[in-house]
Design a protein that fits this description.
By secondary structure, the chain is an alpha/beta fold. It has a single domain, classed as Rossmann fold (3-Layer(aba) Sandwich), CATH 3.40.50.150. Helix content is about 40%, strand content about 20%. The protein has eight helices and seven strands; from the N terminus they run H-H-H-E-H-E-H-E-H-E-H-E-H-E-E. It has a seven-stranded mixed sheet with strand order 3-2-1-4-5-7-6, with helices on both faces. Helix 7 links the parallel strand 4 and strand 5. Helix 2 packs antiparallel against helix 5 and helix 3 crosses helix 4. The longest helix has 14 residues, at about 175-185. It is globular and about 45 Å long.
């Protein structure tokens, strides 16, 4: 276990973060938000960089750490980011501005994702990233799979919950919610799904063409 933890730390330290991301990460800590780790961030950048000028949806803006990583991978992307906390959006706007991203590349929707997602166009996006409240993680993933085009991807952060999801003895509500979501994704014939152990676990779901 010590070697595994050392590997995680090495993976995070391997990834340099620029001033804008570091500033957004510091803001997240002030808000009490757990942002994605640097290793997860670069995984998001790599996933976003696979298409030219992709359309991306982010469920859970936070203070902009994950959004900055997505835009680092795809600087010409159109990012729509959803969060119910206006203060989070203000912090993220400042972070995107500090990074030099044009305002026209980002669309902020302040509201509950459970209410926003059903109003969005289906099969209109290339990538959806989910990093929001655990109570609705299944609903978010189901909605995200409707939003992405065939060949698009859905990524979900924090899916291993510090190893609890892999331990069948752990039955708290958060762990059960993520475990159930993973089971439902694995049983879908229309997707190809894989788990990465970077950070606190990153689920990558490919909507088969």
């Amino acid at each position: 276990m010590v070697e595994i933890a050392a590997g995680w730390a090495f993976a995070d330290a391997f990834v340099p973060e620029d001033d804008a991301i570091e500033g957004a990460r510091e803001a997240a800590h002030r808000f009490g938000i757990e942002p994605v780790s640097p290793a997860v961030g670069v995984a998001l950048a790599l996933a976003a960089g696979g298409r030219e000028a992709p359309a991306i949806v982010e469920i859970g803006t936070g203070t902009g750490v994950s959004g900055l990583w997505l835009l680092k991978g795809a600087p010409d992307a159109q990012l729509t980011t959803i969060d119910q906390d206006l203060d989070h959006h203000q912090a993220a706007r400042a972070a995107f501005q500090a990074a030099g991203h044009p305002a026209r590349r980002t669309r902020f929707i302040t509201g509950r994702a459970t209410e926003v997602l059903p109003r969005m166009n289906e099969q209109a996006y290339d990538l959806v990233f989910v990093d929001a409240d655990w109570e609705h993680v299944q609903e978010y993933v189901d909605a995200a799979l409707k939003l992405v085009r065939p060949g698009g991807s859905v990524l979900v952060a924090h899916v291993l919950q510090q190893g609890r999801v892999a331990n069948p003895a752990k039955r708290d509500r958060v762990t059960v919610a993520y475990r159930g979501m993973l089971k439902s994704v694995r049983e879908r014939e229309s997707v190809l799904a894989g788990l990465s152990i970077v950070g606190d676990g990153l689920l990558h779901v490919l909507h088969r063409p």
